[in-house]
């Protein structure tokens, strides 16, 4: 009986190296804050404005209280419309041996988009595993405000998160593009009519 062939060499580990995590803050990377109404509204707006139309999503979150609450709020809001479906909700720890199991569940189901509420370091680990071992597409992924952290592309790798979009706590929008965090200001609210009239009267008074 011929001897069994030697095992194939393992690919490079997708885990963030310990020294890299420490260099970019490690445990000092801030934990997510509770989401705001403006944040959730802006996130829903991003997804509903996307083309092709987004109907099905998979939601992922880390296990801290704020991320759990953000994910639950998004699931409730997204599911309120009949034509929108949440295929799965997946959580993951901040520390793990490989993140393979949650990554496999997160990437399954072929959703139109993925939505993430998570702490940056654990998401960096998850996204590196996703990029190596699944068909997950970062350009179809949307995040809450905590992931709008300029250190995240350095932790995960610029290509890993290319095209991820998200929102800020005040309703602005951010994009991860070639390793850069690009922020866009929230839309200006229209000036209430009574305030506009007061400003107009003030200008006329100064000109006389």
Topology, please?
Elements: H1 18-23, H2 37-49, E1 56-62, H3 65-79, E2 85-92, H4 100-107, E3 113-117, H5 120-133, E4 141-143, H6 152-156, E5 165-167, E6 173-177, E7 180-184, H7 193-207
Parallel strand pairs: 1-2, 1-3, 3-4, 4-5
Antiparallel strand pairs: 5-6, 6-7
Helix pairs in contact: 4-5
Provide an overview of this structure.
Residues 1-11 and 191-202 have low confidence and may be disordered. Helix 4 packs across helix 5 (120-133). A hairpin with a 2-residue loop joins strand 6 (173-177) and strand 7. The protein is 37% helix and 17% strand. It is globular, with a radius of gyration of 21 Å. The chain contains seven helices and seven strands. It is an alpha/beta fold and 208 residues long. A seven-stranded mixed beta sheet has the order 2-1-3-4-5-6-7, sandwiched between helices.
């Amino acid at each position: 009986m011929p001897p069994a062939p030697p095992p194939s060499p393992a690919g490079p580990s997708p885990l963030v190296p310990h020294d890299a995590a420490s260099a970019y803050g490690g445990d000092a990377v801030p934990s997510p804050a509770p989401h705001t109404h403006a944040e959730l509204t802006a996130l829903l707006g991003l997804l509903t404005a996307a083309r092709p139309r987004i109907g099905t999503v998979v939601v992922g979150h880390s296990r801290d209280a704020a991320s759990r609450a953000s994910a639950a709020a998004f699931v409730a809001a997204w599911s309120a419309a009949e034509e929108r479906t949440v295929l799965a909700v997946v959580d993951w720890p901040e520390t793990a041996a490989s993140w393979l199991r949650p990554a496999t569940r997160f990437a399954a189901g072929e959703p139109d988009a993925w939505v993430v509420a998570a702490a940056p370091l654990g998401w960096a680990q998850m996204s590196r595993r996703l990029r190596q071992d699944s068909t997950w597409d970062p350009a179809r992924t949307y995040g809450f405000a905590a992931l709008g952290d300029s250190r995240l592309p350095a932790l995960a790798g610029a290509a890993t998160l290319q095209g991820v979009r998200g929102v800020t706590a005040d309703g602005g929008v951010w994009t991860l593009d070639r390793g850069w965090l690009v922020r866009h200001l929230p839309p200006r609210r229209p000036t209430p009519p009574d305030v506009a009239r007061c400003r107009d009267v003030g200008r006329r008074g100064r000109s006389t």
